[in-house]
Structures are given as structure tokens and as C-alpha cells.
Amino acid sequence: MGQLPEQVVMILRISAILLVLLLFTHPSAAEQGDVTIRYSIQDEMVRIVLESDKNIMVQKAKVHSSYTLVRVEFPRDFKLSAPPSPEGFEYTRRGRDLFLNIKGLKWIKLLRLKSPPRLVIDAYLKSGTAKEPEGEKPKGLPSAPPEEKPVSTAGVTVSTVVIDPGHGGYDLGIYSGGVSEKSLALKISRSIRYKLRKKGKKAYLTRGDDRYRSLMKRILYARRKSPDLVLSIHMTSSNQVTVYTSAKRQVRGEERYLMRYSQVRHLDDSRLIARSIGSSIMQELNIGVFFRELDVPMLSYADSAAILIELPDAEFFDYSRKNIGLLVDSIVEGILAYEKR
């Protein structure tokens, strides 16, 4: 029997290689994951729990939010189990992506848990003031409408700064582009502390390593340091920087503030520092910066000027050593520029 032509042999070899690759790379049913949706609806928040039988489905999932839409991108194909969509909250699936359409979405908070693996999405709504999770609001810090207008303490030197790296420990925050929010926030916060200390400032971190600290402990720690500024660092799921200060709202035609009584006098300075830092970031990095108000305890109970910075998603911004350095420098320069004005 004669030998096969060389071209036929080559085709057979290539076919065999492709077959082997297909067998080893195609996800089998055992490699796929099960995802179950559970939810609870309150007046001001929707809690969505995505539970899976595989930890990788939760830890490697990427979450993006825009307007009323939250997109969860899973690392593998999955089988979805879900109850009927309730009013004001709909979900659809496309391939490995799960889309959550939440009416009146304001912002989201993520929590990744183990045993069993769960991705918890707290979706806060625009229809009212979001209630803080149980145990997160410090005792002894009652919220009451102020009876005085904000008084600016313009010109006060920022000599002590408490920096709050968001999340930590089992609370990863957003995970995107190979970067976890908790790690990025800690890295940048440490660099800010280092730079501020070189400028002769007192600077402290609410967490200095990868551990979970409750919101109450962070706030009480910050208040014990009697800071001139509390600076909270987070990452958002958008391509921009957002700088937040304490929220306010209209009550019966009168402006009332959603914060502790003693926090009101720091509101003007919070806004001025936010503008100074935001302008510095725009000039240094040439990226969009937006200014918003947000009702969260870290801003409303600091008893000092307080701002929260949400940095861009790692899929939209290159967190190289150079860019992180520029970002840190711009934040520090923004604080110093506020003092010099």
C-alpha cells in the first residue's frame, strides 16, 4: 500500500490537533456553573443575591453599571435558576452575561461571599434615601435635621487627614480588568499617606492591610484622630472619576441635610476640597471628573470635611505605576491647592 500524499498527512495532523484542543478547551457540563437569583425589595433598595455552586463564578465575575442597567459578566457558561421578575426589576441573560434592569437605580454596592459562593448586589434607588445596612450606622451618632446653615471654615490648614481605603478582606468590592477594588484602594491610599507625610501632614489609614473593618469602626477611628479631612477611596464601574460630598434634599421647600448635626458646618469646605482635587485630577490625567452628592455614613458622620472619590474601572483606565503615581500626586496637590487659595 502506497504512502498517503504529504498534503493529506498534513491535513490529518492539523485535524487531530484541533480535535484535541476542542476536547480540552470546550467547557463540559461539569465545568459550567449553576447561578440562582434571589432578591428582596425595600422602599429604597433592592438586594440581589447571585448564588453559585462554584466559587470562581463569584470571585471572577465582572460587574458593570450604567444608568438603570447592571451587567454581570461570568467567567463561564452557567445554568440560571430565577423566580419571575418583579415590578421595577427585570433580568435577562445573553450568553455568559446577566443583565439586571433596575428602575430608579442610583448606585450599587458589591459584596462577594463564600460558603456558599454568593455575589451580593445592593442596588440603592433614587426614589428616596438609601437605608444603611444593619449595624453599619454608628450608635450614638443620631441623624437630625440641622437648625443652622452651613458655615464655611475657609482657609483652615489641612494638617491631619484620615484616608479610608474602601472594602477589604472578604469584601472585594468591584473586580474588573484583573484588579480588585479593595487592593487598588489600599495601594493608592498608602501612597497618598506617604506623600502627605512627606509634606509634613499627619495621615492615617482606617485599614492598613487586607482586612475587613466595619463601617462603624472606620468612622469611629477617623473621628478619634480629629482630622481636618476624611478621604475615602473607591473604584467605580465607569470610565470616569466621581467625587462625592454629603447629600442634601428639599423638605417642604426648605433645604435640609442628610447628615449629623455637627457635620453641616463642614459641608462648604468638603465641596471646596472636592472641587480642588477634581480639578487637579482633570489637569494631570485629562480624564472626566464629575461631582455628586451621596448619603453615606462616612461622609455624613465624619465631623470634618469629608469626600469620597470613585476611580475609573480598570477596564477603562491603565493603573500602571506611572498613572497611579500621577493620580496620587494630583490628589495630594488638590489638597495643598485648597490650602493655598
Give a brief description.
With 341 residues, this protein is of the alpha/beta class.
Describe the protein in words.
- With 341 residues, the chain is an alpha/beta fold.
- It has 2 domains: 33-125, Sandwich (Immunoglobulin-like); 160-340, 3-Layer(aba) Sandwich (Aminopeptidase).
- 28% of the residues lie in helices and 32% in strands.
- A hairpin with a 2-residue loop joins strand 11 and strand 12 (179-180).
- Helix 3 (181-198) crosses helix 7 and helix 5 (267-285) packs across helix 7.
- It is globular.
- Mean pLDDT is 80; it is low at 26-30, 128-154 and 250-257.
Topology:
Blueprint: H1 6-25, E1 33-41, E2 45-52, H2 55-59, E3 62-66, E4 69-73, E5 78-81, E6 89-94, E7 97-102, E8 105-113, E9 118-125, E10 160-165, E11 175-176, E12 179-180, H3 181-198, E13 202-205, H4 215-224, E14 229-235, E15 241-246, E16 248-251, E17 254-257, H5 267-285, E18 289-294, H6 297-300, E19 305-311, H7 321-340
Parallel strand pairs: 1-5, 10-13, 10-14, 14-19, 15-18
Antiparallel strand pairs: 1-2, 2-9, 3-4, 4-7, 6-7, 8-9, 11-12, 15-19, 16-17
Strand content: 25-35%
Radius of gyration: 24 Å
What is the assigned CATH homologous superfamily of the largest domain?
Answer: Zn-dependent exopeptidases
Could you describe the largest sheet, including whether it forms a barrel? 6 strands, mixed
**Average predicted confidence as pLDDT:** 80
Low-confidence stretches: 26-30, 128-154, 250-257
Distance between the termini: 93 Å
CATH class of the largest domain: Alpha Beta
Strand order of the largest sheet: 13-10-14-19-15-18
Second-tier CATH architecture of the largest domain: 3-Layer(aba) Sandwich
Binned, the helix content reads 25-40%
Number of strands: 19
CATH topology term of the largest domain: Aminopeptidase
What is the overall shape?
globular
Classify the secondary structure makeup into a structural class.
alpha/beta
Q: Treating each run of at least 4 consecutive H or I residues as one helix, how many helices?
A: 7
* Number of structural domains: 2
Order of helices and strands: HEEHEEEEEEEEEEHEHEEEEHEHEH
